[in-house]
Predict the 3D structure of the following.
Amino acid sequence: MDPIYFTTPIYYVNAEPHIGHLYTTALCDMLKRASRLAGRDVYFQTGTDEHGEKIVKSAAKEGIGPKAFADRISQKFKDAWDEIHIDYDDFIRTTDPRHTRYVQQILQQVHDAGDIYFDEYTGRYCVGCERYLTDSELVDGKCPDHQTAPVEVKESNYFFRMGKYQQALIDHIEKNPGWIRPERFRNEVLSFLKNPLEDLCISRPKTRLEWGIELPFDNRYVTYVWFDALLNYVSGLVETSKGDNVFDRWWTSCNHIIAKDILKTHAIYWPTILMSAGLPLFAQLDVHGYWMMGESKMSKSLGNVIRPGAVHRTFGIENLRYFLFKEMKFGADAGFTWDLFIERYNSDLANGLGNLLSRNAGLVARCFGATPAPQPLSEAERPMAEKCADIAASYVSLMESRQFSKVMDDIMALVSMADKYMTREEPWKLAKDESRRADLARVLRCGLEVVRFSAILLSPAMPEKCATILRYLGETRPLNGTVPLCELTRFDGLLPGVPMEKPPAFFPRMDPALIEEAAAAQTAETPAAQEAPRTLKPRKDEITIEDFAKVELKAGRVVEAGPVAGADKLVRLLVDLGEEKPRQIFAGIKAAYGDPSVLVGKTLMVVANLKPRQMKFGLSEGMVCAASGDGRLVAVTFDGDVKPGDHVG
Ligand code: ME8
């Protein structure tokens, strides 16, 4: 089998990792482990994308420099990957000198080849995407992913002749039908390429942005963040963090795994850059959908994120990995809810695999004290042996065609088959009949064999959990390709004579009450209010806490109230706000108060810092807050004792 190189996107360090990042990274980790299990040589690189406007803005919000900020968040990604058992080979940062050197080398090369020119440009830039958006990409004038209006930018910059490679790119996509998968994304790219491809602006003047890799041919400019970032996939091979060059060994087998948000940059910018630099194209681009919370994409900028740390402690990170791989059909979006997670966990892992293991291991421990010797299989076990053979035979190709949820479904169908077999064979009854020890041994071995088989094939998804189960079952052979997969998964490969004690609870049932516990743990870890999880769709007109703080709300006691001649909706109030003298306020609340004097003595909510307004009846020095009850405005009062001038908020 050919070697293979997997990459995740390198993530922006504008905020900490969330489940979207976790999914792509854990997926690459699973692919690495599954490839290795099948005897394939494999390399896996991930990392962080640290330049660009977004990072500068996030760092400025915290009042620190971009490098210090990037150092901190990049480390959080590393820590998170350790915590969720990611076995990457290299972690690249775009601020690494090895990366900077390589980007400058390629820029110079592309410039020397005549593919970079200087020009003036006007465009609409989305800082969230860190790219210019075309008119057709905007929805109601806003970026659909970030729900913000792009900024109009006009400046002189350097451009990459991307359009020059348009036809070569179309030819490559057409000649290689599986190059971009699933097909719908390939079609999306081809349809985008039906229109002329504009050249790509690849610089930013230092007068606007200093945080980036300096252009080697003009020190007044830094490199556009995407031109810089995409090159990580090669720069990390040309010089690994250990200092060696592994480009020739891995590059042409490169398989990029991304979500659809960055399809265009990977399917269009990246191959045209490679063509211009005279480098071979990557082997494969695999594109997955979004994890959604309600109707919104889970994202840092929208704030509706779930953090791995809190999840780990409450639900077990590998249980979550299993859920994510099982639930998302590769290429389609999937909804995330904790209820669904617990439902799937309880049905597949607690009641399914976990129960099969504990029922059989419990009886083995009690009746034999060690795994019994193999017995000739009867007709009753044959369908299970055949199912295992089928699953093992299709495993590699299902992984290769990214049908992860089918892999999980097949294994769970086997577990459920074994469960029915146990119910039919009733080993707990056999255990009471001394004359049927051999039958008992055969049935229990079969149950445990299905667990062993499942744990081997699930080990790329749940590496530590499966390793613990396999150790318990006495299966200690390495899962790194040194023992062929067909050997490991041979039916009835369970070793005899492995001492077996009452099994620990590998997959205890989960109570939905845990959801609240996880939410509390997550809130405790949330570094900033704007990153709190949210379940409601963001409103277009929402304001920040800082916006709200601009409004000075105070309690005001009405000392005088009367009608206003010539204005049938207004009342004239004198309101004590704890100041030198009461303020005069005209309020449109007459309809609800036929006799305004009923308001005297009431304490109302008043906007105290509203600019005074000269009305034809006199000066109005504030605004009374009121709710519209069936067309009549009713003044907001307080449910308890408050003094004039008390702050509201
Ligand atoms: O785009 N569902 O970085 P980024 C599924 N730095 N996957 C998700 C997700 C979601 N809701 N949210 C994020 C960048 N992801 C650039 C990449 S590569 C040269 C430069 C995952 O931090 C998914 O893999 O915005 C997506 O493509 C990636 O995070 C975007 O990460």
In short: The chain is about 40% helix and 20% strand. The longest strand covers residues 553-564. Confidence is low (pLDDT under 50) at residues 528-534. Residues 4-288 form a domain with the Rossmann fold fold (CATH 3.40.50.620).
